[in-house]
């Protein structure tokens, strides 16, 4: 059993899940619903923290899953392979889209609603590519807009990815700094008034930032 520490937000106290020996995992908070996904034994497991139950155990293609991410709207889970991305419906477990590429990828960089961006490394440069998986019954649509590399909380507040601090972009002043005792931050997602912070220690913090959104 792995304990996920939820310190603030809609879920208070420790959260227990059956996740064991997973290679990739991700967590998303959408409409006060906390969804945890992890990959093990050739399956993507989808856990509803609110109900404390396994929603899906999705069998996925063989091969090494390089990265795993829940969509920003909480409807899909993306699995990244060396040369492909597959999208699955969280509520039905069905496949909803896939894309293929030939370059060597560097990982999933960002999600926004049903959109996803990855970093693809070519021979001499890196090309960030994105797709929208949100149109039912059609192939994912290639995106050409700028990669959303920072989480905008309002017109000025952002969380700097891969750091433990939040800055006011207008003044440069640090307005929040996660204490070092919580460990290394590996991923940050915004869910309404909450920041969902995944730590290297396999713990997750949910931070209420509503006072910063006024």
What does this structure look like?
The strands form six sheets. The protein has a four-stranded antiparallel β-sheet, with no helix packed on it. It has a four-stranded antiparallel β-sheet with strand order 7-8-9-10, with no helix packed on it. A hairpin with a 5-residue loop joins strand 9 and strand 10. It has a domain of 65 residues: Thrombin, subunit H. It is mainly β and 214 residues long.
How would you describe this structure in keywords?
214 residues, Thrombin, subunit H, four-stranded antiparallel β-sheet, 21 strands
Considering DSSP H and I runs of 4 or more, what fraction of the residues is helical? under 10%
What is the CATH topology of the domain at 150-214? Thrombin, subunit H
**Cα-atom Rg, whole angstroms?**
17 Å
Q: Widest sheet: strand order?
A: 3-4-5-6
How is this fold's topology laid out?
Elements: E1 2-6, E2 13-17, E3 24-30, E4 33-40, E5 43-48, E6 53-59, E7 67-70, E8 76-80, E9 84-89, E10 95-100, E11 104-112, E12 115-121, E13 126-132, E14 141-143, E15 151-152, E16 157-159, E17 165-168, E18 174-177, E19 185-191, E20 194-199, E21 204-208
Antiparallel strand pairs: 1-2, 3-4, 4-5, 5-6, 7-8, 8-9, 9-10, 11-12, 12-13, 13-14, 15-16, 16-17, 17-18, 19-20, 20-21
Quick structural overview:
The chain is mostly beta strands. It has strands at 2-6, 13-17, 24-30, 33-40, 43-48, 53-59, 67-70, 76-80, 84-89, 95-100, 104-112, 115-121, 126-132, 141-143, 151-152, 157-159, 165-168, 174-177, 185-191, 194-199, 204-208. The protein contains no helices and 21 strands.
